[in-house]
Amino acid sequence: MTAVGTGVAEPAGDPRTVPPGERGETTIADRVVAKIASQAAREAVGALPPDAAPPHASVVVRHGSARVRVHVELDYPGDIGGRCAAVRRQVVDRVRALADMAVPEVVVQVERLHLAVRPEAVGGRTP
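Now predict its structure.
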């Protein structure tokens, strides 16, 4: 009788006995971390003005940590510092939870402020 193989190599041994340095590593691309950070910023910013662009992020990943720059548009008047702090916290929490990376730096760049009340609506005057 002839033995028929599946063509798949059998593992060299029990994975528990292979030293950690030889098991391999998972690499998460910068653009994946940027998508996680963008989504986290959207969650933190909440409702946007109708003509505002959604938040977007750029990320540099090195040695298991991510440095993040998030671009947002906010409504004005409002607590800009408080909302930027909320974005930072949410980005750090999400990247740490989903990508298992340290986030030593999150820069929140406010690209544009949108007036919540149009100038012509205040006192009937136009600029």
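The radius of gyration is 24 Å.
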